[in-house]
């Protein structure tokens, strides 16, 4: 029973981490119709900024906020300078461009911060919660991770559903011409979309790093699973991203704990194929027929 | 269209590469024949002298300088280089300086193949020395043998580097293989802790497999759980939870240092405190303690992070300041080392480099690829080096150091719990070492003559 609980809790936290990464992908997809492959190394860069500050003795949470702001600026600048020239061109151009950025940023992080493995201090505690005599495999840091992802989800849903800004962002993403004719500042909306997505991406980078080992490729194992989570959820829906992340997190955790860790990648692929076969648009898609 | 162009050039490149390889084999084979027929000492050098000139010998190695296996292991070639510099400053061996080329493969087997091709075909190394890693080196070991390149002292304890001399005549191991390490650990636990419920936490490759093979000889009935991890996937919480659920109160980890740190972290998160017993390669207390130090808040404090943990040893460590070997390594490090203090990974590289210099000396003035292999088979078993137990090098076995001792970690040092125990693979008995390997000191001046 304890093993079941602990494995489930590990799956919950892992799922939330996948969800955080998937949320950033969903956000950028909804607001610009681009799949950003450079999401992970961008998050690595901002996480390292925070890590360097912490190692220099600056306050932990100041570093945390600076990393998020760095993400905001990085996202906005990237959209203006690099992505803007390919907007309106075939979709594939932007995708290839973000793949290129993936390599540039990853190498950049290696050059600037070195390839040495470092530890990133946890947000809160790293000891499991004690209930009576038993220790349950969830820490106060894990609670923070879960809370942060849920808060991000709520904010995103509120933004897109209940605010004018969210509506304008969706309009700008879906049909630039019409949106422009209706008075939406399309360029500004696209920049904002990238900036916000990069903030969420930075958050996911920080949550994954906290209490773990960090090196420039530390996000690599999360990238694939985060993408799968987003696609399972349908790419459109923040709630879908979280559900996709959790589905994947629980499955992989139980596979590792009860079957074999070697099967993890295979099971992830299996889930992706099953979901896409049954619902080609993903679990939470509203509009049919849009292909990625 | 571009895809098609690529598609058509790839086979051509493949054929070109294959031709080069075959050409290499051909010449190596002929030289081999000459060497065997003519014998040595005729004045003319008979044999393959690739990478050898009158005043230098070029060698190479692949190491993880980046990636999840890099912590600690990336320091090994730095230590080796420091010792080669030390030897070169004294004039080299038989008038030849040692040029050591280090390539980064990031512990990624596909990169190992590429960097090894670079070393063999472009840099034309005389020998591969100290190539690191089980999954990585296995991708190149057969090519190196096919081309007749001496593949000396692989930095890994897999059995593949010495148990099959017929098929891999040029490959030599160095450190004790994981099977005898598993046997020695297994017997110790069976004798000293017969009631322990043993869990195994294994890297999912030969490293874990060979270790398990050895451990099972003695602990088959005591093992209650076997969990594995794939290098690169840092999410190991569920496996540790499974060890806990299966009731393991003693966990033997065949893990690399980063994963040793991760098992400790996950143990904290689960409130799981078995007796930990780590294989030598993953147990360096300074490194693992350093990784854990940042998780401070009183939970873990760096240096003492592994206090009470059991492990094995087969060369003197940096904490043994009384050892003449450690004194030599400190001298080498002071003269030729890089930044920072001397670590046990530097010492590993230096010790391995020392063995290579011994091999060069043994191979004599007319250095050939065939010659160094013959010299190792004939004399390697008697090399007096930092190794606590003798090497097993002979015409039948290319396996490395034959034994080790069990020790308990305290701070950054350790206390030996057993004398040096020696054995061999299979059902060879484990006995106390009677050679004086553990007591000898370095050669005069720190360089084998």
Tell me the layout of helices and strands:
The complex is a heterodimer of chains A (292) and B (449).
Chain A: H1 2-32, H2 39-55, H3 60-83, H4 91-113, E1 118-120, E2 129-131, E3 134-136, H5 140-162, H6 164-174, H7 176-181, H8 186-209, E4 212-214, H9 220-233, H10 238-259, H11 264-278
Chain B: H1 2-38, E1 56-63, H2 70-73, H3 76-89, E2 97-104, H4 109-122, E3 127-129, H5 134-137, H6 141-146, E4 151-152, H7 178-192, E5 198-203, H8 206-219, E6 223-229, H9 237-245, E7 250-254, H10 257-270, E8 275-278, H11 285-293, E9 310-313, H12 324-336, H13 344-363, H14 369-379, E10 403-410, E11 413-416, E12 421-422, E13 431-432
Parallel strand pairs in B: 1-2, 1-3, 3-4, 5-6, 5-7, 7-8
Antiparallel strand pairs in B: 9-10, 10-11, 10-12, 12-13
Helix pairs in contact in B: 3-12, 3-13, 7-8, 10-11, 13-14
Short description:
The complex is a heterodimer of chains A (292) and B (449). Chain A is mainly alpha-helical and 292 residues long.
Describe this structure in words.
The complex is a heterodimer of chains A (292) and B (449). Chain A contains eleven helices and four strands. By secondary structure, chain A is mainly alpha-helical. A two-stranded antiparallel ribbon of chain A has the order 1-4. In chain A, helix 5 (140-162) crosses helix 6, helix 6 packs across helix 8 and helix 9 packs across helix 10. Chain B has 449 residues and is an alpha/beta fold. Chain B folds into two domains: 48-176 and 319-402, Rossmann fold; 178-313, 3-Layer(aba) Sandwich (Rossmann fold). Chain B contains 14 helices and 13 strands. In chain B, the strands form three sheets. In chain B, strands 9, 10, 11, 12 and 13 form a five-stranded antiparallel beta sheet that branches. Chain B is globular, with a radius of gyration of 22 Å. Chain B starts with a helix and ends in a 17-residue tail after the last strand. Mean pLDDT of chain B is 87; it is low at 1-43. The chains are: A mainly alpha (292), B alpha/beta (449).
């Amino acid at each position: 029973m304890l093993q079941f609980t602990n494995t489930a809790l590990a799956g919950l936290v892992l799922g939330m981490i996948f969800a955080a990464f998937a949320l950033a992908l969903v956000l950028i997809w909804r607001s610009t119709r681009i799949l950003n492959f450079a999401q992970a190394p961008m998050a690595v860069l901002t996480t390292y900024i925070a890590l360097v500050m912490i190692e220099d003795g600056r306050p932990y949470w100041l570093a945390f906020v600076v990393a998020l702001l760095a993400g905001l600026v990085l996202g906005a600048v990237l959209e203006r300078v690099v992505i803007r020239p390919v907007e309106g061109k075939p979709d594939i151009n932007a995708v290839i461009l973000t793949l290129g950025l993936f390599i540039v940023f990853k190498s950049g992080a290696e050059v600037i911060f070195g390839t040495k493995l470092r530890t990133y201090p946890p947000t809160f505690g790293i000891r499991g919660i004690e209930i009576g005599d038993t220790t349950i495999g969830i820490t106060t840091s894990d609670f923070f991770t879960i809370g942060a992802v849920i808060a991000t989800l709520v904010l995103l849903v509120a933004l897109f559903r209940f605010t004018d800004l969210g509506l304008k962002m969706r309009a700008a993403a879906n049909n630039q011409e019409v949106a422009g004719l209706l008075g939406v500042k399309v360029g500004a909306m696209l920049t904002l979309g990238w900036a916000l997505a990069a903030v969420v991406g930075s958050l996911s980078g920080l949550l994954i790093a906290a209490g773990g080992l960090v090196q420039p490729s530390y996000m690599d194992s999360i990238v694939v699973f985060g993408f799968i989570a987003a696609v399972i959820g349908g790419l459109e829906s923040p709630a879908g991203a979280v559900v996709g992340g959790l589905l994947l997190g629980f499955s992989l955790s139980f596979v590792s704990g009860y079957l074999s860790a070697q099967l993890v990648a295979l099971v992830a692929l299996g889930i992706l194929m099953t979901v896409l076969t049954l619902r080609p648009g993903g679990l939470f898609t509203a509009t049919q027929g849009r292909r990625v | 269209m571009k895809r098609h162009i690529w598609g058509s050039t790839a086979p051509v490149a493949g054929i070109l590469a294959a031709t080069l390889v075959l050409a290499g084999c051909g010449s190596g084979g002929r030289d081999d024949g000459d060497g065997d027929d003519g014998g040595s000492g005729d004045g003319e050098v008979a044999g393959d002298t690739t990478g050898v000139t009158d005043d230098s010998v070029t060698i190479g190695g692949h190491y993880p300088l980046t990636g999840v296996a890099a912590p600690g292991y990336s320091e090994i070639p730095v230590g080796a280089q420091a010792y080669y510099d030390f030897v070169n400053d004294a004039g080299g061996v038989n008038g030849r300086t040692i040029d050591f080329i280090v390539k980064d493969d990031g512990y990624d087997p596909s990169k190992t193949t590429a960097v090894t091709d670079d070393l063999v075909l472009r840099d034309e190394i005389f020998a591969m020395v100290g190539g690191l890693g089980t999954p990585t080196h296995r991708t190149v070991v057969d090519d190196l043998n096919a081309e007749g390149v001496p593949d000396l002292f692989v930095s890994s304890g897999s059995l593949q580097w010495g148990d099959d001399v017929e098929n891999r005549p040029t490959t030599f191991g160095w450190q004790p293989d994981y099977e005898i390490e598993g046997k020695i650990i297994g017997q110790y636990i069976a004798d000293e802790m017969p009631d322990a419920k043993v869990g195994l936490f294994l890297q999912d490759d030969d490293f874990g497999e060979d270790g398990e093979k050895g451990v099972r000889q003695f602990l088959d009935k005591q093992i209650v759980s076997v969990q594995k991890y794939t290098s690169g996937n840092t999410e190991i919480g569920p496996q540790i939870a499974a060890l806990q659920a299966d009731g393991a109160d003693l966990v033997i980890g065949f893990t690399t240092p980063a994963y040793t740190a991760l098992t400790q972290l996950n143990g904290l998160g689960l409130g799981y405190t078995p007796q930990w017993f780590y294989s030598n390669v993953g147990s360096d207390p300074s490194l693992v303690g350093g990784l854990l130090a940042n998780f401070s808040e009183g939970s873990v404090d760096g240096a003492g992070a592994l206090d009470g943990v059991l492990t094995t040893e087969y060369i003197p460590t940096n904490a043994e300041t009384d050892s003449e070997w450690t004194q030599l390594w400190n001298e080498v490090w002071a003269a030729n080392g890089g930044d920072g203090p001397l670590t046990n990974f530097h010492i590993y590289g230096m010790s391995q480099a020392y063995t290579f210099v011994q091999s060069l000396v043994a191979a004599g003035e007319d250095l050939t690829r065939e010659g160094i292999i013959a010299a190792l088979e004939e004399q390697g078993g008697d090399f007096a080096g930092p190794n606590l137990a003798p090497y097993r090098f002979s015409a039948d076995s290319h396996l490395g150091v034959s034994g080790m001792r069990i020790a308990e970690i305290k701070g950054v040092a350790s206390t030996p719990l057993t004398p040096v125990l020696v054995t061999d693979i299979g059902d060879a008995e484990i006995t106390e070492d009677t050679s004086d390997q553990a007591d000898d000191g370095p050669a005069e001046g720190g360089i084998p003559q």
